[in-house]
Fold this sequence. Notes:
The protein is mostly beta strands. It is built from no helices and 4 strands.
Amino acid sequence: VALTYGLDQTVLSLWPNAPLEEDTAYEVVLAADGVSDLAGNTLATELRLTFRTGNGALPPPCAGDPVAPA
């Protein structure tokens, strides 16, 4: 899937150039030494992120409901 990316300080954002297919698994691969932080440090190892689109897709772990402080 072709995509566009943007960098804002420490946040890397990725946007597909066309709508993603419904009920499809996708994988984003960041190559070792292919991405660096603001200090110039690169990824030591390849990073793979997987997700699925569609009705059966689970939300990402960080997208849960907020929890009130105890």
